[in-house]
Amino acid sequence: MTDKASTTTLSADECWEFLGDRPVGRLATAVAGEPDIFPISFAVAERHVVFRTHPGSKLVEVAVNARVAFEADEWTPEVATSVVVKGTAEILDRDADVAAAEATGLVSYLDDGKDVWVRITPTTVTGRRLTR
Amino acid sequence: MTDKASTTTLSADECWEFLGDRPVGRLATAVAGEPDIFPISFAVAERHVVFRTHPGSKLVEVAVNARVAFEADEWTPEVATSVVVKGTAEILDRDADVAAAEATGLVSYLDDGKDVWVRITPTTVTGRRLTR
């Protein structure tokens, strides 16, 4: 650790700005005390995290316990930034909600006809930036 | 999705080789149904994930529920690889275990005197590579 090393807390605005620039994050779920984690392509829509997925473990776990944590980060040799969103995930079934999610233009890494949108409504958003 | 797009499952050897090359991963924990997620610098020691940390939420959560999931990934425009380790985390308190962890040469992003080593003993290791 040098004299220059520091930890900065990001404001909510800085957190959402950072998330808007990151293409990939990770979703953490918890079912019956078992955490799980999934990399996801995501987008930000009006301070919510949205992503597309298809039927599978992510959706099953979110259906059992909608509480989730989501993280995105960026690392360089000098600066590491990480933002964590905790909140509640829901599958979007209203046309207006789906349209708002579609409007983000998000394309999944494999655009293989995944047709379910999930939205995370945040309860807390925290960000840290480490500089060394 | 082009005709070339594909999903490949990695072997255990490929998973550990991939993890050995990645400097940063994310730890997911679950306490009382609340998932949490933390970016961590990590190393691989004899097919265990080890990392250093200091007293704080990661350690508290692992002490309450030692079940964890850990993920590392790498993305390029053409290839996305992700490996997930599920297992049990423990704080290392035996000198031999700490020495084995120290031997990895892992340096935390901020080397600020963190002095606790944590080891994840895997129950499952899975990896996927998406090519498009």
TrEMBL record, chains A, B:
UniProt-recorded name of the protein: Pyridoxamine 5'-phosphate oxidase
One Pfam family of this chain: Pyridox_ox_2
Origin species: Isoptericola halotolerans
